[in-house]
Amino acid sequence: MASSKRTFAHWLTDAIIRGFLSAMRCLPYETRITLSGKVMTNVIAPFTGNRRRIRENLALVMPELSATAREAIVREVPETMGRMLMEMYSANEFSARVATYPITGPGLAALKAAQAEGKGAMLVTGHFGNYLAVRAALLAQGIQVAGLYKKMSNPYFNDHYVAAMEDFGKPVFERGRRGMSGMIKHLRSGGFLGIVQDQRINDAPVMDFMGKPARTATSAAELALKFKLDLVPCYGVRQPDGTYVIQTEAPVPHSTAEEMTKALNDSLEALIRAYPGQWMWTHNRWRGAGNDTSEDRARSNS
Fold it and tell me: Which position among 58, 102, 184, 261 has the lowest Cβ density within 10 Å, counted as fewest Cβ atoms?
């Protein structure tokens, strides 16, 4: 669990981040988005070791890639992350653009039907493209989607991170006990909730993801079953020109939490294989489920 203790190191790190974000926001919108992607690719990714983690994960689940294809993904992933970060901190301009982008698939009709019935729905996505594009697009359609977030370890950064999340729809709930009661009340009152599903949860069941075992939370499916809500996979898929298509899929049929979660994994996997550079390969997604590299084992034993 992230600590709420505030240290000088936290303050200094956040001051640097805030300075960067403020400087970028002085630039025209398209320039700041493009430049943020390049900074993440050419400066931050090499410094943080993210390139190594991307290569390790690709070698684990997509070993068939050629060296050329792999290195293209290694560069595209941090660019996607950098662009998403600046889009998040450019909420007004980004949301105005997203409101004009197409929403495809049968999920939108299901969400509108749920809204008309006053019962809300569960939306599930991944760290793919820009999941905030989904919330912005639906907000423009009159559907306000609450968010669920993981508290950041830096409390200074967490303050403005949460505020930025709220720009795409309120309320937002902290993952864990702290936010659970508010989230349950929101769902019971007919609210919509968006969950980013592809995080590793240490005590979660082990399920297949991209052909390898990965600890995968079944909470989204469990909530959908408990409150009799549609479970709708939704994604913001970036296009070559920097715009987005908001892809909504048919609700996952209700069965068991495990079977429904498997359907969510399969849905996201299909998009990752189609657009591998748009997924956040920097996660330790498969760690702790029998796939650990020698580096992971050394770290866990230290």
Answer: 102
